[in-house]
Amino acid sequence: MNQPLVPIEVRGIVKTAGGYAIFIGNSEKVFVIQVEHGMGQVIEMFLRGTPKERPLTHDLMLNIFTALGVVLERVVTSELKGTTYFARLVLKQENELGKSFAEVDARPSDCLALASALRRPIFVGAALFESVEDMSGLLREINGESED
Q: How far apart are CA 45 and CA 47, in angstroms?
């Protein structure tokens, strides 16, 4: 992935009639990715550090990463086609043979869940970041904040 990247973070999560609105961005701009109800709950649980009785699917993935010596370096939301965002997991494995990297196509919601669980960096492609509508005002309104 050879495109300029913008660091972002999860700025808010709002339950909606159809799932969850995940507000991601930085101090410059915030945009929304809609996710299904279950994924919104998972992301929220990871962000809050909510304990779980049994491993969720994302916990299983993280356990497999650990068993194989794989580290999640970062996640990148790279493009928008129609109303669908595309993202990638950037993984690193280091052993006696050296260091290798892999990029894996994944849903942005899965990327956000894994990055939230591990507190790993989240990025968005600069071109995509420029093209999305700024939803900072809506997030402030939802949070009951003034627009100082």
A: 6
The CATH code of the domain at 5-142 is 3.10.690.10
pTM: 0.90
Say if residues 76 and 6 touch (Cβ distance below 8 Å).
no
Alpha carbons within 13 angstroms on the beta-carbon side of residue 48 total 11
pLDDT digits (tens, 9 = 90+) for 18-66: 999 999 999 999 999 999 999 999 999 999 999 888 988 999 999 999 9
Report the pLDDT value the prediction gives residue 147, as an integer from 0 to 100: 64
Q: Which residues, 6 or more positions from 44, have their beta carbon under 8 angstroms from its beta carbon?
A: 13, 20, 50
Angle between helices 108-118 and 57-68 (to 10 degrees): 60
* In the chain, domain spans: 5-142
Q: Give the whole-angstrom CA distance, residue 127 versus residue 111.
A: 19
